Amino acid sequence: MDRLSLYLTLATGPVTVGGLVITVMAFGYYTWPAIGGAAAVGALAAWPLAYLISRRVKRKDPNFDHTQEGGLIPDPSKPEV
Predict the structure, then answer these.
(1) CA separation for the pair 77, 79 (Å, rounded)
(2) Which of 3, 4, 16, 65 could form a disulfide linkage to 54, CB 3.0–4.6 angstroms apart?
(3) Higher pLDDT, residue 70 or 73
């Protein structure tokens, strides 16, 4: 887990939920279970998508060394992983 993905979740969440809800409504499903299901799937997919975006951004950075990644919870006293 890295801090950049946590911040990107705030951006990917609304985009993912909104896109899925719009897709469900475009197919003609206007019921609450369909809209709620699309919103739930979008909310659950927000962090994994943010993590993938974070990894891609960091791999494109020539000064970032992804072999030095820490554990599951980053050490707050260290720089960004």
Answers:
(1) 7
(2) 4
(3) 73
